[in-house]
Task: inverse folding
């Protein structure tokens, strides 16, 4: 479906709308916008004088780490709050005045899924059409266009709570488009969505902007921001940068290098991570990360020339910078402190033999799970060795979480076997679960008690000695930046700190096997770097890690990856092996490989 009919069907078409030829006029003007919450010692400055312009008729990315002020700014633009200071104008008016004149001129999709999960797709559309005053005579034609635009036509009777992550986001966008909005606000639409669905969401939003709609796309993922014609970057409530992504990216030119990984010399997977640890802690290095069989090293703007010479002497070759490279340089780079997990031997470790990768710690043998006639997972088999990171990748609804839950002992398989650290999960489930650490996809700790109380409850559940707990906690809390939050109510923590707390609780008992279900979903790039520093240190200490992620850059950290699709394991290999199997592209990314394998499977196994 072309963009013009869709945009025309959801916009007012007024004479001063962006489609009428004034796309060079700002749709949104922010001038010194301030917002604060609380008072006295509890006062929090969420926005500290944000100034920026959002052009009409195009996509602008709103970028920043957790607690940078993105959602606060979105809510101000949606007219849900009034700024404490400064001015905010949308199409020349305050949000309140604009909404009085044109009640449906702003469409807003919040970060959390805000629709009714116990209603069907069509029931949600009808409800929101009523709330936004869409007349009966216009509804059916509009519904048909939106359902075709979002590819939700075959799922109108499915309950919203049973949609995949990508389909939920599409339904959220469809409901936000009801009522002819001129400005569409999307708060983190790509969180928890697989790469294929993210591409589809981006295609939809591009079509809307081509048709004249102004879109503000909030994200902590810089690969999403890089696609936007313009970005506004926030950091601690201030404007870090506003302009074209390429303008910021150019600041990192000549400072980004790829170094071939020493693991190719036969030193094993830990050499892969030892090299990462070496460069991550070097003064003058702004960022370092694993990229397949290479390391991507970004030098700081003030790095000494001797460091550049060392990089080149070690075989580094210059590569074009990405927005992420430049962004990390602007915010001071990664945390260079070593992870304390590397100094903590995991339970049951056998010294160097374990750390070098000997022995399987997680075993899946022909795991199958059926729900009535539906097969959610079919004959899944793999092993994760000590010292190895194994990734489970796949689209939403492919069977990853089902497989994950069986291996954690949270769901009993219909057939097959699974074991953790040599203990059979089906016969000795309680003993096996004490050998693993589990970080759930959705935050699963108690929100109404303090951080400290959550930690002590988890420690007691795992039978951790109080003396050992009290010795470990200060070290891990400091490394995960939780020291100042231990007495805070857990519900008050920003998302990134909640994820850090979940990781601490999953690892406090030093488990030999660690299960991480989308551990960094929705968190910013600096937090992701910290997480993977700690995960890498855990594997160096002998742990086996099974991880799911929708973020392909993270999957590059995995020693091996299994692609799960339509309940089956369709491919397995190292990141480089999966990319090399895509022969019709000169230099495929892991995301390209992910999508290519799925499309190939669909061609070879049509429904």
Result:
């Amino acid at each position: 479906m072309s963009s013009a009919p869709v945009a025309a069907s959801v916009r007012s078409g007024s004479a001063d709308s962006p489609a009428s030829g004034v796309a060079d006029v700002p749709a949104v003007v922010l001038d010194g916008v301030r917002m604060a919450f609380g008072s006295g010692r509890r006062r929090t400055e969420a926005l500290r004088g944000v100034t920026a312009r959002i052009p009409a008729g195009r996509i602008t990315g709103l970028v920043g780490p957790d607690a940078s002020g993105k959602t606060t700014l979105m809510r101000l633009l949606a007219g849900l709050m009034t700024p404490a200071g400064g001015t905010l104008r949308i199409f020349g008016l305050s949000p309140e005045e604009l909404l009085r004149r044109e009640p449906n001129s702003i469409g807003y999709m919040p970060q959390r899924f805000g629709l009714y999960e116990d209603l069907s797709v069509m029931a949600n559309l009808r409800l929101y059409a009523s709330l936004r005053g869409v007349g009966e005579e216009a509804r059916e034609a509009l519904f048909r266009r939106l359902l075709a635009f979002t590819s939700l036509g075959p799922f109108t009777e499915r309950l919203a709570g049973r949609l995949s992550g990508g389909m939920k986001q599409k339904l959220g966008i469809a409901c936000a488009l009801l009522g002819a909005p001129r400005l569409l606000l999307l708060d983190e639409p790509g969180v928890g969505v697989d790469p294929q669905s993210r591409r589809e969401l981006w295609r939809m939003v591009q079509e809307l902007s081509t048709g004249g709609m102004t879109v503000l796309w909030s994200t902590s993922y810089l690969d999403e921001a890089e696609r936007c014609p313009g970005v506004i970057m926030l950091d601690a409530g201030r404007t870090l940068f506003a302009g074209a992504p390429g303008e910021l990216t150019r600041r990192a030119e000549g400072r980004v290098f790829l170094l071939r990984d020493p693991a190719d010399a036969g030193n094993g997977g830990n050499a892969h991570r030892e090299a990462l640890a070496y460069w991550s802690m070097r003064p003058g290095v702004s960022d370092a990360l694993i990229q397949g069989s290479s390391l991507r090293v970004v030098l700081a703007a003030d790095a000494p020339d001797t460091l550049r010479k060392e990089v080149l002497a070690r075989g580094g070759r210059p590569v074009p910078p990405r927005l992420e490279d430049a962004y990390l340089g602007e915010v001071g780079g990664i945390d260079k402190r070593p992870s304390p997990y590397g100094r903590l031997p995991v339970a049951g470790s056998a010294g160097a033999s374990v750390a070098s990768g000997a022995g399987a710690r997680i075993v899946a043998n022909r795991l199958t799970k059926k729900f009535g006639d539906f097969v959610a997972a079919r004959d899944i088999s793999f092993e994760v060795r000590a010292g190895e990171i194994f990734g489970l990748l796949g689209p939403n609804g492919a069977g990853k979480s089902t497989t994950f839950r069986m291996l954690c002992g949270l769901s009993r398989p219909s057939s097959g076997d699974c074991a953790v650290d040599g203990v059979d999960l089906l016969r000795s489930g309680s003993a096996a679960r004490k050998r693993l650490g589990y970080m759930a996809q959705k935050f699963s700790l108690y929100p109404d008690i303090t951080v400290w109380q959550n930690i002590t409850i988890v420690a007691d559940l795992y039978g951790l000695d109080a003396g050992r707990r009290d010795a470990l906690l200060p070290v891990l809390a400091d490394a995960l930046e939780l020291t100042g939050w231990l007495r805070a109510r857990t519900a008050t923590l920003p998302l990134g700190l909640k994820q850090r707390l979940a990781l601490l609780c999953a690892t406090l008992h030093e488990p030999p096997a660690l299960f991480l279900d989308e551990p960094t979903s929705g968190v910013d790039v600096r937090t992701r770097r910290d997480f993977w520093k700690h995960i890498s240190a855990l594997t160096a200490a002998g742990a086996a890690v099974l991880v799911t992620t929708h973020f392909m850059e993270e999957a590059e950290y995995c020693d091996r990856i299994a692609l799960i699709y339509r309940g089956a394991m369709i491919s397995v290999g190292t990141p480089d092996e999966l990319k090399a199997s895509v022969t019709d592209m000169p230099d495929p990314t892991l995301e390209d490989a992910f999508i290519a394998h799925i499309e190939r499977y669909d061609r070879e196994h049509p429904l």
User: Anything to note?
Assistant: The two ends are 24 Å apart (CA to CA).
